[in-house]
Amino acid sequence: MSESELKGYERTARAKGMPLSAWVRQTLRAERQNEPGSSPEKKLAAIRAAAQHRFPSPDIDQMLAEIARGYAQGLPD
User: Fold this and answer.
1) In whole angstroms, how far apart are CA 68 and each of 22, 64, 71, 72, 77?
2) Fewer CB atoms inside 10 A, N or C side of the chain?
3) Tens of pLDDT, residues 37-70
């Protein structure tokens, strides 16, 4: 963060009558609440919609074995 950017945030906090640290916490909390899909209702609606679909899938032992193989191979560079 540049010095001028920091000074701008300090001015904004001062104009609201709060220390910079309090303004940052307040701003971060507000942003987190505005994230799309962050509400439990939206998440449950997405799960319910996905549960309506029927796709073929292997049994759990096969899926776990495939996951373990993927972990053993590691991430590509």
Assistant:
1) 45, 6, 5, 6, 19
2) C
3) 567 888 888 889 988 988 888 899 999 999 999 9
